[in-house]
Amino acid sequence: MKWFEKFGSIDPRWIYLVMAIALAIPLLKPMGLAITIDQETTVPVFNWVDNLQPGDIVVGDIAFSGPGELGPQVQAWFRHCMLKGVKVVMVAQWNTGERLGYTLINEVVEELKAEGVSAEYGVDWVYVGWKPGGTTTWRNMQLDFWDTCAKADMLGNSFEDLPLMQRFRKWDKATTKGVMAFLSGSPGLPTYTTYFADYDIYVGNVAVQVPGAMNNLRAGQIKGMLCGLPGAAEYEILLNRPGKTVKLMDAQSMGHLWIIVLVILGNISYYAKVKSDSSAH
Length: 281
Prior knowledge:
By secondary structure, the protein is α/β, with parallel strands linked by helices. It has helices spanning 2-7, 12-28, 42-50, 70-84, 95-115, 135-141, 145-148, 189-195, 210-218, 228-238, 244-280, and strands spanning 57-63, 87-91, 125-129, 179-183, 201-205, 224-227. Strands 3-2-1-4-5-6 form a 6-stranded parallel beta sheet, with helices on both faces. Helix 4 crosses helix 5 (95-115). The longest helix has 37 residues, at 244-280.
């Protein structure tokens, strides 16, 4: 029991060292820990894209500012769209996420090109990006998308020169087969539940927002949801292309396991010390 008593005063650096090792091992050599596919949240998002026809247009929204949990979601979803021949028009409610989203998608584009999959800018996808004006701008996009966006994408290309945009002069139910919004705060989901209530809305959420968004899902306001990093890993598995996110889930699981071990050992150490102090008196 003496060892357990001393555990409470162990140098924290040893704890961090073990944590670093626990996180590094799965990244270097994936362990293939089981990942359960959520039928209520992830599967509807996957099935939506999988059931679309080549040439169908969908809209994606970047409303976050750090790659963290949502970056892998964006990449898995966009890859699925390109593999299915679905056209993607990307917007960005957050100006801080505009360039980030473009970078994330370009990484996938380069991978797809190496595989011989079509992902041509202007034909298969367009990145319109952020436009000033807040939610009012998003509402006006449904009336005249071109004029509202000043007839140009994020890179300064005229919509006139982008073949995909010839089919997307208005953002309405005749031109788009749904919306996928990747969200980490406000403005975010309320933009769509308010102004796009009759559309098929799907979301990618950071983990802390998932409990609140479950109410929207079960009320039918959104049709499906990717939940944090696990949602991205589940999507990769459904796509039969497990990648870096699946590895990250192994690392996350090992990190959680080490925390559980620490909690158990910490409690044993505390009770051992209390018992030792009682015996001394």
